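User: quick one, fold this
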Amino acid sequence: MRAVNPVCKFIGLLTTTFVLAGCHDPVLNLSAFCLSIILILFSHVKIKSLLLMLSPVLLFAVGMFFTGFCFSAEGSMPVSEKTMIFASSAFWNGMTQASRVLAYAGIGYLFALTTDQIFLVRSFQKQLRLPQIFAYGLLAAWGILPHMMQEYKRTKAAFLARGIRTFPVSPALLGPLLVKSVRWSEELAIAMESKGFSGNETRTDFHPVRVQWYDWLFLGICLSLSLMAIVFL
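Assistant:
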């Protein structure tokens, strides 16, 4: 999944989410969630990290289940002959709400955990014609982000060394960080202009981003599954 073109991955998964939004089938939602988790594991994502990220999602899904189960209208979700595994319309409604949370979370994690940020921006620039000035801005922002996190930790440690306790979003922590971020962005902009970076120049790529056959295959599979879900469900 990491090698799939981000634009094709984005279009395919976005189409899937739109289809799931119009379907009220817990089996389909749970199938999408399980398939997403399998693809994430095959992409060499650490199981511990995945479980930590899924913990709040599972908790929210349980809450949505009991919300749909306890506050469902009578006869709002009738149980058909094809879904006799569900005991009542209230259980069906709860499973629909909970499984939808899991399906959306699984698809979102599949895109986020298997997509490189640099590859994503370069793909949007080439395949979706994202202006260079925006692409450079996004790449610069991701380059500054690690320095911002490091500066945040340093400022927090400085306050603790003086016996001053602050909460995570304290203005005392965010104020210096905001000032330094503005200074870094100005220095970065000046440096890029001095090196000839411009949004109007036509440039070549050392590693061109192209759409390969497996990208079209992934997009075709997503569109085919979405079409089958619409036709049969």
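User: anything notable?
Assistant: Residues 21 and 100 are 8 Å apart (CA to CA).
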